[in-house]
Design goal:
17 strands; binds iron/sulfur cluster; three-stranded antiparallel β-sheet; binds S-adenosylmethionine; single chain; alpha/beta; nine-stranded mixed β-sheet; Transcription Regulator spoIIAA; 396 residues; 2 domains
């Protein structure tokens, strides 16, 4: 099945035990106990809302992703109840992937077995680093011993697990990163998400950065970090299938692939994004981010959506390019044309190829698939913008 036909659900859990100083995800530290029954009611209401709007012809779900925040702090009962509601609404494909993001603290790890029993079949653990000094600087509540323990517990309960590391951190050496990667490979993971540290607006890290108190590696060193990462992962049998994601072939995260291949996904929970098709029109959706207001909105209206925009054909083509270029397998120009009526001007493709930023490859003698070259992956937004400027239709 082409990625465009896949259907998934993203469930956002907006709470964390503490706020990390680099993070701008929609995560909050609750100042009292969290009333899970209220959240369950609201999640169920949003699922009912979308089941009604999307109608009876949806395919069964191919993936569910619990993201956060820290969903490993949800009670397994809540996770199980949400999964049951999703299954009654749309059904599950036999090979459904049900992922959940977990933090490595012991209180989270104590939940892993029950989360597996509740139906989660893939765990993604936020290890971030194997270096205790770095974990402290990142404001993490766990140390490297807890990280190792969490990985070991995860692999006894889940067939599929992955972990995240953040690299190109302040004061990190290339050698130090190579050592951390070697420690990661020693666990035999079939999937790794490796993110270069980014300085996000409105975070304590941004304020330190602006005050000159936090320095990222110079650009040429950042490129070395990236290239070395690609090289070592490839050698370890974990080639990149996307800019920051590496997997043993066949173990790619299906939910991530659904995003990048422009499938349909419903986003429920506070601050969740979605992309849905209603009567042949595609919409972007966004829910209220503040948990208490989201609960209120769902209570009044049966859903927490505060922004729903129809995406015209040009916007869809641009999004398909932006998402698809992240993938090692590239983006299909035929799919874009079929979905939107747009294709990319050949001169622009050729110029980017001459610059060594883009690779176009043949399928049945047509230039059909485009992907960013290794060099181009570091300039993805610029390339996507140039290609988007070159989108044309018959009407133009
Ligand atoms: C939304 S977080 C949730 C995961 C989980 N709460 C945790 O912190 O382990 C998903 C991942 O985004 C990455 N991330 C968040 N902020 C980042 C930043 N500023 N730069 C690079 N990676 C970041 C981290 O690797 C994190 O594991
Ligand atoms: S990185 Fe994870 S634990 Fe830290 S604030 Fe963000 S979502 Fe929460």
């Amino acid at each position: 099945m082409s990625g465009l036909q896949e259907f998934g659900v993203y469930v956002h859990w907006p709470f964390c035990a503490a706020k990390c100083p680099y993070c701008d995800f929609n995560s909050h530290v609750s100042n009292g106990p969290i009333q899970e029954e209220d959240f369950l009611k609201a999640y169920i209401a949003e699922i009912d809302h979308w089941a009604t709007i999307l109608g009876p012809d949806m395919p069964a779900l191919s993936s569910v992703f619990f993201g956060g925040g820290t969903p490993s702090l949800m009670s397994p009962q809540l996770v199980g109840d949400i999964l049951q509601t999703l299954e009654s609404a749309w059904g599950f494909q036999d090979q459904i992937e049900i992922s959940l993001e977990a933090n490595p603290q012991s209180v989270d790890a104590a939940n892993f077995q029950d989360l597996a029993l509740a139906g989660v079949n893939r765990l993604s653990i936020g290890v971030q680093s194997f270096d205790d000094g770095a974990l402290q600087a990142l404001g993490r509540l766990h140390d490297s011993v807890q990280a190792r323990k969490a990985i070991n517990i995860a692999r006894t309960h889940f067939d599929r697990f992955s972990f995240d590391l953040i690299y190109a951190r302040p004061n990190q050496s290339l050698q130090g990163w190579e050592d951390e990667l070697a420690q990661a490979f020693a666990f035999g993971p079939e999937h790794l998400s490796l993110y270069q540290l980014t300085i996000e607006p409105n975070t304590p890290y941004k304020r330190l950065y602006d005050a000159g108190k936090l320095r990222l590696p110079e650009e040429s060193l950042a490129v070395d970090f990236y290239e070395r990462t690609q090289e070592l992962c490839l050698k370890a049998g974990l080639p990149a299938y996307e800019v920051s994601n590496h997997a043993v072939p066949g173990q790619e995260a299906r939910h991530n692939l659904l995003y990048w291949r422009y499938g349909t996904f419903v986003g429920i929970g506070p601050g969740a994004h979605g992309r849905v098709k209603i009567e042949d029109k595609r919409y972007s959706t966004l829910t209220q981010a503040i948990p208490s207001k989201w609960l209120e909105n769902v209570g009044y209206e049966g859903h927490g959506v505060i922004d729903q925009q129809e995406l015209d054909a040009f916007n869809q083509a641009t999004e398909m390019l932006l998402m698809g270029l992240r993938l090692n397998n590239g983006v299909s120009l035929a799919d874009i044309e079929h979905e939107t009526g747009y294709w990319v001007d050949n001169d622009i493709i050729e110029n980017l190829q001459v610059e060594g930023l883009l690779e176009a490859f043949d399928k049945q003698n047509n230039i059909n698939l485009l992907r960013a070259s290794q060099k181009g992956r570091l300039l993805l937004n610029t390339i996507a913008q140039l290609l988007s400027d070159g989108l044309t239709t018959q009407d133009q």
